[in-house]
Amino acid sequence: MIKIALGVDSGSLKGKKDVGDYWQKALTKLPDLHFELYQVTRGVDSVALYYKSVMGKNAIEVMFFDDEGKVNRMYAFYTD
């Protein structure tokens, strides 16, 4: 989705500014954006969300937390 929204070939973002720009563009393109949460699972210092995303895609996002409880890494996977 990052490649589609921002044209970033690596498909990754780094820092609050990049993440903020991504969500600003996403919400401009899809102002009624919403997700349907299917399931939440927990791991060691991590959480995974399984949900219905935009364009009818299913998605899994895995977030990893640092010692302060802040997300320091995240991976997103989408169906074709």
What do these coordinates show?
The protein is α+β, with helices and mostly antiparallel strands. The protein has two domains: 33 residues, no CATH class; 47 residues, Roll (Nuclear Transport Factor 2, Chain: A), CATH 3.10.450.50. The chain is 24% helix and 39% strand. It contains two helices and four strands; from the N terminus they run ααββββ. It has a four-stranded antiparallel beta sheet with strand order 1-2-3-4, with no helix packed on it. A hairpin with a 2-residue loop joins strand 1 and strand 2. The longest helix is centred in the N-terminal third of the chain and has 14 residues. The termini are close together.
Topology:
Layout: H1 2-6, H2 16-29, E1 36-43, E2 46-52, E3 58-65, E4 71-78
Antiparallel strand pairs: 1-2, 2-3, 3-4
Number of domains: 2
Looking at the overall shape, the CATH architecture of the largest domain is: Roll
Oligomer: single chain
SS class? alpha+beta
Residues in β-strands, percent:
35-45%
Overall geometric form: globular
How would you state the average pLDDT, rounded?
87
**Computed Rg:** 13 Å
- Low-pLDDT runs: none
Run of helices and strands: HHEEEE
